[in-house]
Amino acid sequence: MVNEVLQMVNERHEEIMEHEHFPVGLVQRSNDIGRHIFDCLSMSDKSVQSFGLVGMGGIGKTTLAMSIYNKMHSKFEGSSFCVNIRAELKEKDTSLAMLQKKILTELSNQYHDEKINNQLHGRRVLCSRLKDIRALVVLDDVDKAEHLVALYEPLQLSLAPRSVVIITTRDQKLLQSVQSIKIFMIKELDGKMSTWLFNWHAFMKPQPPDELKEVSYKVVEACKGLPLSLKVVASDLYHKTDKVRWEESLNYLLENTEIFDVLKISYNGLTENQKEAFLDICCFLINEREDLVCMVLEAIYKTGRTYLDVLKERCLITTTADNDKEVGRIEMHDQLRDMGRHIVRQQTRRDRAWDEETANDILQVIYVLYLKMCVQYVQTRLFLVNRNLDGTVWKRMRRSVQNCVVSRYGVTFLFQ
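The structure assignment produced for this chain is given below.
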């Protein structure tokens, strides 16, 4: 009886958390997929069961996988969720060997000190250490075949029968190499679900005010059932009661149909410093502790917590619980991150570098500027010599050439 009560409380708690985060349309989808997974487990007890969630960016694959994981993980001996694998490997100092280590330690408490030298070694370690463990594993946002080779294949070879591996990806072709996988195509929300999701974020209730009903329906249609767009646009219009403001947003959406342009509607509503703070987070501060991000923003803009609250309210960032459960980490959907970095690339002032490519681009611009200043210096020197003028002028020019400065966060690049 106690176990039954605990199970009911846990299920009810998960339901409350879902409604708190407004995943309208998610509950039915996660229930349907979860039911299918259990049906597959009941019909076969001889192999690892594999499932794929496939859909475009912003469609809700990760959120859906998290919902399924939260409902199912307690029914397995071990569980592991590798979130945003593509971004982890591309943007951070993360390797496939580190992800293999994460899976190993989360599925078996006996191997926290196990060393993994590289991904080939990691495959052998996973195959030997995870044998006969019945587990639930989610590999989120897989976008290369090598990810499957390093992470999925050793799980498929080692885990006990009736284990479950869920893979989310934008590329269905990647899953062709996965044996006996059941693929779920994640489609856009239908009109009813889109309207509910939008209304909860825009009005905090299921129905819009009468005076905004017609224009709100048109805005929902313009978002084309994409959950991320619906949440971001609705959050931008939250507390806005002026019908003219709504019509302006509608016209913008109708004229700008690309996903970056749709998401940019919320960015455009920020103040200049808030925009800069958002771009800083896009380039440097994703997955950093919230207190650290707050401190950085306060140092630059003299405002930290308020800016973070504004960005959260507009659904531009989220906070996930850290290991110590006291301080969260700043997260952002990869579509929003890519939008922010696209904005930075289009700026005349290039002062943010988040990878080797963008750093090289900026340094090339600085080098060209340096050469131009050298030419100006030589031309000025010749002019002064020919005119026999006071040499203090060209001395100042020489100093400016020697000290070509680009300053950001107090960092100075000095060219001697």
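Interim note for the steering committee: Confidence is low (pLDDT under 50) at residues 8-20, 404-416. The radius of gyration is 26 Å.
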